[in-house]
Write a structure and sequence with these properties.
The protein is α/β, with parallel strands linked by helices. It folds into 2 domains: 205 residues, Rossmann fold; 145 residues, P-loop containing nucleotide triphosphate hydrolases (Rossmann fold). A 7-stranded parallel sheet has the order 3-4-2-5-6-1-7, sandwiched between helices. It has a 6-stranded parallel sheet with strand order 8-13-12-9-11-10, sandwiched between helices. Strand 3, helix 5 and strand 4 form a beta-alpha-beta unit. Helix 3 crosses helix 4, helix 6 packs across helix 8 and helix 15 crosses helix 16. The relative contact order is 0.13. Bound molecules: adenosine monophosphate. The site of adenosine monophosphate (AMP) has 15 residues, from helix 3.
């Protein structure tokens, strides 16, 4: 078994890892850390749950500690991420791993007041973790100077492109010094990612640890066939009968998330919803309550759930299957993290037959269908088209969102997704 001791990290970082109880590096960490420490550019395919955050944070802190800059207040490292949740999570990691070092890191994201961020930047932050839109707000207000950045990380770059951030990213890149180290992390190597990598990275080391669908292999998955109108009762029963705790439930729409969380609460199960229409403070509170067990069931939309970082998340429930099979893999990747056991339950009604089949095709395996006693689907019920309830609408902005609410989609993506809605045969 490999150990952190041989990767080239110094004592304060090793102490922080020990405190976290990490005994061995994950594969992405074992591969990426030594390469990053050689000051190479890196293109890494790694999904959430692989330990990628520590994979770039640890060597970043190590390299920053190796020399002192002329201006101790200058921004030396910039991490860009698609959503405020992910920014908050990366910022937490920087604080955790850098606890024994003397760096200041600050998170920058939209949807909250800009003045505390300006104050933090004025006090001096060597490490800035930001969503692109709000970072550009600071640039235009001249409250941040990016001319001394030595180290750039694009985290979840594929999502940033999906969310329409490419122009914002390019504007930011133009403000950075030419000589710097660049890391690009993405769940996939889609052609747009390769193009961005070609423009951004200098002879990168390419690291690919987990195949795209590997989460699907380590998670126990079950499909429960059930009628659409009875899903909520079945969910409540499963939570009670199996005594499920810390259950993350996915719905397709924000409205659906609210309704379901209210239903569960009325039935005596402590539940809350998290999605892009909620204020940042409401989301943070819901997440904190969920983490400490005060909320048993957290109902979330796909995009809001990205960046939720919780150790040992034991159960993921697909209350509704996602319209795009890849989202299923993202969803169940929330459980079974870093090699731990996880379980993913999906409630599948007749309308979702095509979606279920697409998922099985994508992950190249059949998922067991288990009918729960008393919930056998009524064969006389006819399929209905799935309502077009993605988190997009005519209100979607025609340009990149300035504030990463995490739930807005560009029209381009909306078009891509709606084209994959199930056929009217079902
Ligand atoms: P990430 O993929 O960066 O979101 O990390 C997934 C989870 O794995 C996080 O909750 C980390 O705290 C945890 N983690 C990261 N590295 C290790 C490690 N070497 N050993 C055990 N857990 C880890």
């Amino acid at each position: 078994m490999s150990s952190f001791n041989t990767l080239g990290l110094s004592a304060p970082l090793l102490a922080a890892l020990k405190k976290q109880g990490y005994t061995a590096p994950t594969p992405i960490q074992a591969q990426a850390i030594p390469v990053i420490l050689q000051r190479r550019d890196v293109l890494a395919a790694a999904q959430t749950g692989t330990g990628k955050t520590a994979g770039f944070t640890l060597p970043m802190l190590e390299l920053l500690s190796q020399h002192k800059p002329a201006n101790p207040k200058a921004v030396r490292a910039l991490v860009l991420a698609p959503t405020r949740e992910l920014v908050a999570q990366v910022h937490e990691s920087v604080k955790t791993y850098g606890a024994g070092m003397n760096f200041h890191a600050t998170p920058i994201f939209g949807g909250v007041g800009i003045h505390p961020q300006i104050s933090a930047l004025r006090r001096g932050a060597q490490i800035v973790v930001a969503t692109p839109g709000r970072l550009l707000d600071h640039v235009s207000q001249r409250t941040i100077d990016l001319s001394k950045v030595e180290f750039l990380v694009l985290d979840e770059a594929d999502r940033m492109l999906d969310m329409g951030f490419i122009h914002d990213i390019k504007k930011i890149l133009a403000l950075l010094p030419k000589k710097r180290q660049n890391l690009l992390f993405s769940a996939t190597f889609a052609p747009e990612i390769k193009r961005l990598a070609g423009e951004l990275l200098d002879s990168p080391e390419v690291i690919e640890v987990a195949r795209q669908n590997s989460a699907a292999e380590s998670v126990k998955q079950t499909f429960h066939p059930v009628d659409r109108e009875r899903k909520r009762d079945l969910l409540a029963q499963l939570i009670r009968d199996q005594d499920l705790k810390q259950v993350l439930v996915f719905t397709r729409t924000k409205h659906g998330a609210n309704k379901l969380s209210e239903f569960l609460t009325r039935g005596g199960l402590r539940a809350d919803a998290i999605h892009g229409n909620k204020s940042q403070s409401a989301r943070t509170k819901a997440l904190a309550d969920f983490k400490k067990g005060a909320v048993r069931v957290l109902v979330a939309t796909d995009i809001a759930a990205r960046g939720i970082d919780i150790d040992h998340l034991p159960h993921v429930v697909n209350y509704e299957l996602p319209n795009v099979a890849e989202d299923y893999v993202h969803r169940i990747g929330r459980t079974g993290r870093a090699g731990r056991e996880g379980e993913a339950i999906s409630l599948v009604c007749i309308d979702e037959k095509d979606l279920a089949r697409n998922i099985e095709r994508l992950i190249k395996r059949e998922i067991p269908k288990v009918v729960v006693e008393g919930y056998a689907p009524d064969p006389s019920i006819r399929p209905e088209p799935i309502p077009n309830g993605r988190n997009r609408s005519s209100r979607a902005p025609s340009r990149a969102p300035r504030h990463a609410t995490g739930d807005r989609r560009t029209p381009r993506e909306g078009a891509r997704r709606s084209s994959r809605r199930p056929s009217s045969r079902y």
